[in-house]
Structure formats: structure tokens, C-alpha cells
Amino acid sequence: MRIDPAAYVRQTIRNVPDWPKPGVTFRDITPVLQDPRSFRVLIDLFVYRYMGQKLDLIAGVDARGFIVGSVLAYELNLGFVPVRKQGKLPFKTVAEEYSLEYGNATVEMHMDSVRPGQRVLLIDDLIATGGTLMAATRLLQRLGANVIEAAAIIDLPELGGSQTIEATGLPVYTVCSFNESDR
């Protein structure tokens, strides 16, 4: 019997009701990372998608984007660039503020993270409103990078983030999606 890899990963994601606030269902990827088979299937999905593409770097968004992004960079023999929350990087940085579901935040990158013209895949664990990935994209573009796609494990389509990102012309890839009614 053949198992759909994306469905396999999706069924491993834990739903945590009423976190971080009542009425919100948190989609927790920790069980995927804890289970060697699920983690391998997840990484393989990304590897198969990107192994034939000409990429120079993987940029991962703080913090869960670091996990998937760094493993993917290793598997594809590419460098990895962290997009961090404000105040976490020790060298000269560029910053971008953005809005998220519960307020505002800022992400930063080292000024020398990318070179002009480099082809970068941007990755995070989840797309909600799209604010974090949009801010990271703007940072990469300010440094001269060509962001070829925004990727994530989970899409929350009801929050409109993927559509917001795609409306800018940046392609989006996600392994699976959850609606609020999916428990």
C-alpha cells in the first residue's frame, strides 16, 4: 500500500486547542521532528522538490524554519542563512518590521548574509497571515537576493497569508494545510 507523504506528515502534526489564546488551534510540528520516519518524509518532500533547481542558499525564519531549513541546506549542499528575531544577531544587521496575528515584530539578517543575485529559497514552519515571510522576503531583496519561492510545512489558508505572498508574484509551496475547523 502506497502512503501519501504529505498526508503522512499532516497526520503527525499535533493540534493544540486554545493556545496561545482561547479559540486558536496551534499546529505543533514537534511530533514530526520527534519521529525519525515523519521527519525524514518531511525533509525528503522538500529535497525532491528543490534538488533539481538552481539555488544558492536556504534562508530559514526564526525559529522552526531553522530546523527544516538547515537540514534541507545540508541535504542540497547549500549554505544556510538565519532570519532572526530582532536583537539576536551579533554583527551589523538590516531589519524589517511586520504585523502578525497578535501585534508587531521585527526580523533581522546580517548585512553580509547574501550576495546580490543569489537565488534563495525562504522557508518557515507555517504560513498564517504571511507577515513574517513577507518581511523576510523584503530583507533578502534589499540585500540583492532573488527569492525564488517561499516554502512552509503548514498553510493556514483561512488567514490569507499564502494568497498575500502569491499576490506579490512570489511562488508558495506548502506540504499541507489546515482550516480552523480541522481538529
UniProtKB/TrEMBL annotation:
One of its GO terms (molecular function) is adenine phosphoribosyltransferase activity. Residues 36-158 form the Phosphoribosyltransferase domain. SUPFAM superfamilies: PRTase-like. Pathway: Purine metabolism; AMP biosynthesis via salvage pathway; AMP from adenine: step 1/1. InterPro entries: Ade_phspho_trans, Adenine_PRTase, PRTase-like, PRTase_dom. It is found in: Cytoplasm. It catalyses: AMP + diphosphate = 5-phospho-alpha-D-ribose 1-diphosphate + adenine. Keywords: Cytoplasm, Glycosyltransferase, Purine salvage, Transferase. The keyword Cytoplasm applies. The keyword Cytoplasm applies. Its EC number is 2.4.2.7. Homodimer. Catalyzes a salvage reaction resulting in the formation of AMP, that is energically less costly than de novo synthesis. Belongs to the purine/pyrimidine phosphoribosyltransferase family. This is Adenine phosphoribosyltransferase.
